[in-house]
Amino acid sequence: MSLKFQKNIVNVKSWIPHVDRKNAVKLDLNENYAMLDSYCLKKLIKFDNFTISCYPEYGKLVALISKYTKQKTDNIIITNGAEQAIELVLALFFSKKNRIVIPSPVFFRYDSVLSLLGAKVKHVFYNKEKNGFSFPISETLKALESSDGVILCNPNNPLGSPIDNNDILKILKKSKELNIPCIIDEAYFEFYGKTSVKLINKFSNLIIIRTFSKMFGLAGLRLGYVIANRDIIKQLVKIRSPRSVNHFAVKAGETVLQDIKYFKNRLKDVLKIKKDLIIFLKAKGFKVYNTSTNFILINHDKSSDLLKKLKEKNILVNNISDYPFSNSILRDVIRMTLPSANDFIFLKRFFNHYKK
Question: Would you state the pLDDT for residue 1?
Fold first, then answer.
């Protein structure tokens, strides 16, 4: 006789880990793999016995995040990547009785976690425009009236589109009136240059999720954080495992936040490559959607052929044609992380020889 599993867990699709990516041109997972040059790596590998043998201490890192975000320390909790932040925040607010509004498509982990919790999701869909995607503000506001919360991704993943500040304010005001949480994922905010963090004090229902994976290039160490009202943070501390963020990640977070000027200069280099890449691909006749993130989107009617040819050259990109809850707006769309300077040269060589 087999054991009975929870139905809501059985129905969730398993995530298959990626393998054999180290020596490839890694443009598939939105990592900022070229951010850490030898200057920064020398700092990151300086650790002592305390880092390895003792349980992590979070005070210094939280203080540095406080300085970086201009928020009080009791408005911040660090997590094992933004994915743990997502799990904690959704578990705090939602269960089987709840209905959550999500402008979609969105980072897949939100739907997965809500399914695990048994909650219901109301998807309202982005619209495809000539040069990108527009946010469904009217549909979102209407759906809020019969919901228990809303989740926004700004800028959006997988679309790369930002949400207008006025639309965010409308949603925050409406959700506050309804006394429901408004969760904003700001994983890519450094590339966008705008944030809703200043609204934390005005809207006690606002929760912001961030990561060190994108701007700071620490995806492999799994480090994220949540900014919210202090009462929300107190509850999140209760459900986060006391030592879930490891000491290597903590020390790395401290190191990068003490050298912000370096990373801001490196970000300029990344954005320069982005601009040059878009110009290059458009000159080659490709339809490219600009984004406010560290990736771009290529719409190509022969996307399967392009994917095959890229893979043959060990260039990894992401086919998002069938992205969950995308309502067909991503058909024949490829998502490509911004390459390093050297990989950009390799990429140009590929496209110079590719026959459309």
Answer: 54
